[in-house]
Specification:
single chain; alpha/beta; Arc Repressor Mutant, subunit A; D-Maltodextrin-Binding Protein, domain 2; seven-stranded mixed β-sheet; two-stranded antiparallel sheet; 11 strands; DNA-binding; LysR_HTH_N; LysR family transcriptional regulator; transcription; DNA-binding transcription factor activity
């Protein structure tokens, strides 16, 4: 197969992100016909249709989604090449480091690690985006080339089911944290309260345990995130089952009760690509994250 040139990769990414050939042309400073010609050439080289064309624009096919994700990752390597070369041999890390994390990890796990990382490497510029652990979640951001490293739940129902990697990704466990029952402070019988839940709390490792507990009712209230659930519990609106990172925001308005040795445990870890795992910035961040969780 003929190789795609960097400018062809940029065209694929622009079409996918703007939703059409004309919009991609405007972004790249090209003509619409030049973009169309480039996409047709890329499809011929790849041997697959990458975009569905329609009156409303262009959308990636499954082959196109994969190609665009890889294109972003390859272009990212071009971006970091200079910083990698300059830092080689002198333990210097510089440039942008793109991180995706779910909310409680972004609040509690990342900041101390980033504080140490930027103190050791003043030239590094972390960019952190909070991504909900639904669907592809943070791992999907890494696979699609939008993040260099993600903080993810590794034993959920998403695309990274276990340490070692899936879909071309590399993973590693950073911490294991137990779930606990959280309920309004001083409540005499919290197990009689309604159950509060949030969409991201949907790992099979949790649900299987829940289904085996006859005292846990079906959730009657769902909130946007775990922080909202914790606030609602503190207001006396129900009980919830939350992991340790979420409970770091607990106030005196709630009590926390352990679920015992058979209770569910969540594995939190990092997700990255093989090529990003070899870069100085990602390696340095993983070291700091591991240091934080020892």
């Amino acid at each position: 197969m003929a190789e795609l040139a960097p400018h062809e990769l940029r065209v694929l990414v622009a079409v996918a992100e703007t939703g059409g050939f004309s919009a991609a042309a405007a972004r790249l400073g090209l003509t619409q016909s030049a973009v169309s010609h480039s996409v047709r050439g890329s499809e011929a080289k790849v041997g697959a249709v990458l975009f569905e064309r329609g009156r409303t624009g262009a959308s990636p096919t499954p082959a196109g989604e994969r190609a665009v994700g890889l294109a972003r990752r390859i272009l990212r390597m071009y971006e970091v090449l200079g910083a990698e070369a300059r830092g080689a041999g002198r333990d210097a890390v510089e440039g942008v480091l793109r991180i995706a994390a779910f909310r409680s990890a972004a609040l509690h796990l990342l900041p101390p690690a980033l504080e140490r990382l930027t103190a050791r490497h003043p030239g590094i510029r972390p960019e952190v985006r909070v991504v909900r652990e639904l669907g592809a979640g943070t791992a999907g951001e890494v696979a699609a080339g939008r993040a260099d490293l993600g903080i993810a739940t590794l034993n959920g129902t998403g695309p990274v089911p276990a340490e070692g990697g899936a879909a071309g990704l590399l993973t590693g466990v950073l911490r294991e944290e137990a779930y606990a029952l959280v309920h309004p402070a001083g409540h005499p019988d919290p197990k009689t309260l309604p159950l509060l839940d949030w969409d991201e709390n949907c790992g099979s490792y949790t649900r299987d345990w829940w289904r085996a507990q006859d005292w846990i009712p079906r959730a009657t209230v769902k909130a946007e995130d775990d922080g909202m659930v914790l606030t609602m519990v503190g207001r006396g609106l129900g009980m919830a089952i939350l992991p340790e990172l979420s409970l770091r925001e607990a106030t005196d308005a709630v009590d926390i009760t352990g679920l015992g040795p058979s209770g569910p445990v969540r594995r939190v870890g990092y997700v990255t690509t093989p090529e990003s795992a070899a870069t100085l910035g990602v390696r340095a961040l993983i070291r700091e994250l591991r240091s934080e969780t020892r």
